[in-house]
Specification:
339 residues; Aldehyde Dehydrogenase, Chain A, domain 2; 11 strands; 15% strand; 40% helix; 2 domains
Length: 339
């Protein structure tokens, strides 16, 4: 397949995913039974985001034209170690490898073992020759390069095992939000999507807030209370109750609204059902701080022009990344073209 045929196949896959598919729904039910964090709603949101943001014909065309995309003289095998924190989190990497004309050798996460194989089956139904570009394996072997995503602990293992190959290795990162104190209720409600979507398990989820000194938390707590139905999910509720009990027993100052716990804490990574915050007094100084910690930050949510020297995302958009929104800011297509 040449690059035009591969892009056309991806566009057709997007069209299929935007249609009703009873078998896909059945796969989602199986996935939810296997991993309770993968609710039907979360899986549907992940598939919809892929279909709308990553497989849109205009977006794909604009994206592929950004690169030289010469056909590789000899397609290489790129190992993909998939994460399993949210549904289909590694699809963007897979798309890049396919678009670049290389073969993907895929090590699935046991937490997300069903959705991606079904999407690859759909792609093979659309373009049978695409089947040769993908292989799902229990262990990576005979690869030429690797893209691996995991925690800080697993990243050390990845560095040791894959370090001699061309590689992209990703570690823990989190989304943050910088508030001015003048946000509308609609903006704060949209922020709730950045906090709660996928139960906050994604690296793009907002896990920490920066708020101005003297900030009034009440409007924020009221807006976040709109997402209170999450507390009905057993695994989320167990985490909320556990963390709430810890704060009470250890007399940790905190704020709560029944579905989220807010605690002043310098860490960028917060527990499930909790959110950290820090106060700031000067936005320019805050931007300097964020620049120092850029390796720990996946994305920044803020009102337009609040942080003039930082790239920010509008409220509610963190879990709808586009084709150019590469994890950790590392351009995967440039990496693949340089192999």
């Amino acid at each position: 397949m040449n690059v035009r045929a591969r892009i056309d196949a991806l566009i057709s896959l997007g069209e299929r995913l935007r249609q009703e598919d009873e078998y896909l729904t059945a796969v989602m039910h199986r996935s939810q039974h296997h991993n309770a964090w993968f609710t039907l709603e979360n899986q549907q949101q992940a598939v919809e985001s892929i279909a709308v943001k990553l497989l849109d014909p205009t977006a794909l065309q604009r994206w592929i034209e950004h690169y030289d995309h010469p056909e590789p003289a000899a397609p290489l095998t790129v190992g993909l170690v998939m994460a399993g924190n949210i549904p289909l989190v590694g699809f963007h990497d897979l798309l890049c490898v396919f678009a670049a004309g290389h073969r993907a050798q895929i090590k699935l996460s046991e937490k997300d073992a069903y959705l991606l194989p079904y999407l690859l089956k759909l792609l093979a139904d659309i373009a049978p020759e695409s089947a040769g570009y993908f292989e799902i394996v229990p262990q990576l072997k005979g690869f030429d390069a690797v893209i691996a995503t995991g925690s800080n602990n697993t990243a050390r293992y990845f560095e040791s095992y894959f370090g001699k190959y061309p590689h992209i290795i990703r570690r823990n990162r989190n989304g943050i939000a910088v508030l001015s104190g003048h946000e509308t209720h609609d903006e704060l409600h949209a922020l709730g999507k950045d906090v709660f979507r996928f139960f906050g398990l994604g690296c793009r989820n907002v896990a920490k807030l920066y708020v101005p000194a003297g900030y009034d938390f009440q409007p924020l707590l009221e807006a976040l209370h709109d997402f209170r139905e999450l507390i009905l999910h057993p695994k989320y509720k167990n985490n909320f109750d556990y963390n709430f009990a810890l704060y009470i027993l250890n007399r940790v100052p905190h704020l709560a609204n029944g579905c989220i716990l807010l605690k002043e804490d310098p860490s960028f990574q917060s527990r499930i059902a909790s959110l950290h915050y820090e106060f700031y007094t000067d936005l320019s100084a805050l931007e300097d701080i964020l620049a120092v910690h850029r390796e720990e930050i996946q994305c920044i949510v803020a009102q337009p022009n609040l942080l003039p020297h930082s790239t920010t995302i509008p409220f509610g958009q963190t879990q709808s990344p586009g084709l150019f929104d590469y994890p950790d800011g590392v351009d995967v297509m440039e990496f693949l073209e340089g192999l």
